[in-house]
Amino acid sequence: MSPYDLWMTAVAELPAGLLSIRFIKSGDRLAHCIGLQTSSEGLGGFLPVLESIEGDAQEAWPASPPMQQIVQESIGQNSAPVLLGVGLSGNGHWSGAVEKTSSGSLKLDIACKISKPASYLGSRYRMANETEVDFKNNEIRLTVKKESSENVTLVLSAAIGKLSMAKENRLIAIVPGSEPSLIQTHRWCYNLAIGPVNIQ
User: Fold this and answer.
1) How far, in Å, are 66, 80, 95, 181, 182 from residue 76 at the CA level?
2) Would the pTM count as exceeding 0.70?
3) In a domain, 200, yes or no
4) What is the per-residue pLDDT across 160-189, written as a single tens digit (0 to 9) for each?
5) Which residue has better confidence, 80 or 177?
6) Pick from 87, 93, 103, 176: CA 20 to 30 A from residue 147's CA?
7) The domain that contains 144 carries what CATH number?
8) Which domain holds residue 140?
9) Which of 134, 120, 133, 152 is nearest to 55 (CA)?
10) Bridge partners of 21?
């Protein structure tokens, strides 16, 4: 099965214009991918850009939040769809919400309540090989070449927390601004939007 076929088996999806986030079953949890919709054929037209890096049941502090359940709810006056997830691992309880903002971007809001000091908290992603990447001013810009069309740039920014990137390994991380060893609820929040085509 190719990486593209893998994301056709989504158990949950939330589109936002050209963007979409999809969740699939991965062991005891749900992995997710943020990508571009390439057609209006539902699950058929999807180009992966960022794939979550997941842990396993043996890891107390996995690379990404171990969401084990996800549901779609409608909130607000406009009954906008929101994906809500929860999960447990080691000494942490994770919760998350994914929503489409009024500006058409995707917003991911993650929290983890811990009962013991954590060695790591955050969300890690692997970049698709088709992307060009630039990181400055606390934004990561991923430029994707769509087949038979112009380039599209995704802008990833952290509203709460910090971004980091290992360009040589094509890895991105978003972590809370708080020290993970503190016994408290930690939060990180980030947005993905369609940005300018050309990286300056």
Assistant:
1) 27, 6, 19, 35, 33
2) yes
3) no
4) 999 999 988 899 999 999 999 999 999 999
5) 177
6) 103
7) 2.70.98
8) 3-195
9) 120
10) 14, 34
